Amino acid sequence: MNQKSPLRRLGIALSAAVLIFSLCRIVTELNNYRDARNVYSQLARDSVTEPPADDTDAEAPTAEAVPISVDFDALREQYPDLCGWLYCENTAINYPIMQGDDNDEYLRALPDGTYSAGGSLFVDYRANADFTDLRTVIYGHNMYDGSMFSALSDYADDAYAAAHDTLFLLTPSDSLRLEVIAGLRVSYTCDLYSPLQTPEQLAEFIASARNDSFFTPMHINTEYSAVCCLSTCVHNSTARTVIICGITPCG
């Protein structure tokens, strides 16, 4: 009994050390999430203007109205890789969009390059930064705290999808509506992440996405000359959730 006692004490000490280490990692990650939320909230406060909620004298917004304006001059002075801003009403999606020299640059980095587990929203490095490609992909993490592209998972519910069928993509030179067409679950190696070459390929892709959508497809009678794909990971899986949006100009 006495011979086993030191081993038992050693086991208890090691277990305690592992527990303390794990708790420290959890606390560090939670602090990292909080710091990132604060950074993005400050960016939105400094650079994004929304109509006052209690402005009773304002005219009712039309279907073409852009609900926010963005000070791109100030933003790009600080963040030269910033190429747009993505907004979806009544969700956490209200973020700048970056584009790096590769798809790793902003995977775990804030717009200023600071490490962040949640990284930034970013456009595929091969894409045109003005969203003029036939198919543009924007990547974002599916964060456990509900930030970044976590809301994309909620499109599995038809009612949620119908209530959030439009996002707004603003660039330094344009304001675009993203009309949600369909949602797909795909492999991260799927050819969806490769550029399209012809309008015929785009039409085939849209038809296939509507057919395979995991929610009831929307805007089914609308034709689009370009799409934007919002891509995020699926927890504990190599699959990806991708929300397919048709791009239309505002106004």
Q: Could you give the order of strands across the largest sheet?
A: 3-4-5-6-9-10-8-7
Distance from N terminus to C terminus (CA atoms, Å) equals 82 Å
CATH architecture tag = Beta Barrel
Please tell me the total number of domains. 1
Task: Give the topology.
Layout: H1 4-47, E1 48-49, E2 69-70, H2 72-78, E3 82-87, E4 94-98, E5 121-123, E6 135-139, H3 158-163, E7 166-170, E8 175-187, H4 199-212, E9 227-233, E10 239-249
Parallel strand pairs: 4-5, 6-9
Antiparallel strand pairs: 1-2, 3-4, 3-7, 5-6, 7-8, 8-10, 9-10
What does this protein look like?
There is one protein chain. The protein has 251 residues and is of the alpha+beta class. It contains four helices and ten strands; from the N terminus they run αββαββββαββαββ. An eight-stranded mixed β-barrel has the order 3-4-5-6-9-10-8-7. The longest helix has 44 residues, at 4-47. It is globular and about 75 Å long.
